[in-house]
Design brief:
alpha+beta; globular; 4 helices
């Protein structure tokens, strides 16, 4: 499997998860990032025995984008703490149906999870988890005879299916989302991409920012996608 590696040292591995690949193995019989990267490390460094690789965060199977993995247990603990403390900053690009009244806005909801249907649902404050995201509208384009907006999302909290559900709940389902929208998804494409990841290196204590541009033609329909600074800083 072709997995672009953006950065690697003795402690962490930053790469781009392709769409359609699981973050880790599970009940679905599909390739997953943890197993594929363990193979990569084992072959590259000719490592005997088992290879350690810590999963720090996840992306849904049909979401591509930047991920960081830990190559040591110490790095895994420290990165996991950053996730828990909301110190890892994640930004996404989304293709959302329709137009927006405001160019910049925020969604604040309380969400719960329907375990049987594996869906996010709106909940009362007493029972749900606070879900917050900020977003900016970058551009508009016509896809499949409908108007869609290109959205830049700053994810503040990381709840189950948060981005997909909140945009659906507020009247703007994501392109290709058959779970929360009404679109029949034939090629399993979802208009959501994790384009930026910012965190502190778990050992060197240096700020690290990694960005990657989506290459699917539906994202590239939006001309202003090329105005984003895609350099890894």
């Amino acid at each position: 499997m072709d997995i672009p590696i953006l950065f690697e040292d003795n402690h962490i591995l930053v790469c781009v998860k392709p769409q359609g690949v699981l973050s880790q193995g599970g009940s679905i019989d599909k390739p997953n990032m943890v197993d594929e990267l363990k193979k990569y490390i084992k072959e590259k460094y000719n490592k005997p025995g088992n290879v350690y690789l810590g999963l720090v965060h996840r992306l849904d199977i049909n979401v591509g984008g930047v991920m960081v993995f830990a190559k040591t247990s110490k790095a895994a603990r420290r990165l996991s703490k950053q996730v828990k403390d909301h110190d890892i900053k994640k930004k996404y690009l989304a293709i959302a149906k329709g137009t927006f009244e405001k160019k910049q806005d925020k969604y604040v909801d309380y969400l719960s999870k329907n375990e049987e249907k594996r869906q996010a649902i709106i909940s009362e404050e007493t029972f749900g988890k606070l879900a917050i995201l900020n977003f900016s509208v970058l551009d508009q384009a016509k896809l499949d005879k409908n108007i869609y907006s290109l959205i830049d999302i700053d994810l503040i909290t990381g709840r189950f299916h948060q981005i997909r559900f909140q945009f659906f709940h507020h009247g703007h389902p994501l392109y290709g989302d058959s779970k929360y929208g009404d679109m029949i998804n034939k090629d399993f494409f979802l208009g959501l991409y994790a384009y930026s990841l910012e965190f502190m290196h778990p050992v060197k204590k240096e700020k690290m920012i990694f960005k990657n541009k989506p290459n699917d033609e539906r994202f590239l329909k939006f001309s202003k996608i090329n105005k984003i600074d895609w350099r890894n800083l």
